[in-house]
Amino acid sequence: MYTEQRLCGRRPDPEAAAVHEEVRRSPEAAGPIVAAVVSANEQVLGAAAIPVADPVYRLHARITARTTRAHRLGADDLAPEPVPDGFDGRRLPAYAEIVRQNADTPIVAALAARVRAEATAHDDRETLLILADAGYADHGPLLDEPGPVRRRRAGVPGRGEAAGRRPATGDEVPSAEMSVLMFRHRSAEAVRQVSAAARTDWTVAAAMLEHGAAELLAVTGPRIARDLHDAVVRAADCAGPPGSAPPPVVDGAHRSSATCP
Hints:
With 261 residues, this protein is mostly helical. It has helices at residues 2-7, 14-25, 27-30, 32-44, 55-73, 92-101, 109-121, 125-134, 139-144, 176-185, 187-200, 202-211, 213-220, 223-239; strands at residues 150-152, 172-174, 249-250, 253-254.
């Protein structure tokens, strides 16, 4: 809010200005995340960067500031940001997220190339999925892979835990990136997967629909929201005890005119 008000030529909100100034004076006390936000804001406004202890957050602040200046202020410095000397190969997903958040300028091109090379060398599919979502990696091989990256449900042991085995697929939900890429590039296959999952595990189906909502709307139009809601209402009605009153709200939305066949 502080930076937006400054860019619009307005006097900043006093509380926002006070917080900004406090972090600017003592960035170490604020922690790397808050310090990076304020550092980016300072750079957007033409001031020097403030110290950010974490090198990944420091890079995020610099690239975000450059991208914002290009979009909002017409800055013409779009040269790729050099990959920092202290590049940490253990934090590839974090670097990939920097790329994704600033993917619409060539500023991240060099970083994306380095992250993609490292992720490919180490078969880091999580990182490659993020880059593919940003348009900096080939989505085809990732979607062809029979074992897509999935995010575990809360409370489910991770790799190497319990008996040392990866949890069964039924104890996992698809990653957001996998769902987005499926709906974006292979919508028919994504719909088939949702249909199959809905028969066995609504958590998986709901996760795919939630993550791929924007792509699903782009393919089908807004009518899909009503159609999906009607289908869920019918399922809830048919699964209820005989003679019971239907719930007025289903899946977070008021029921429509759907009826059980």
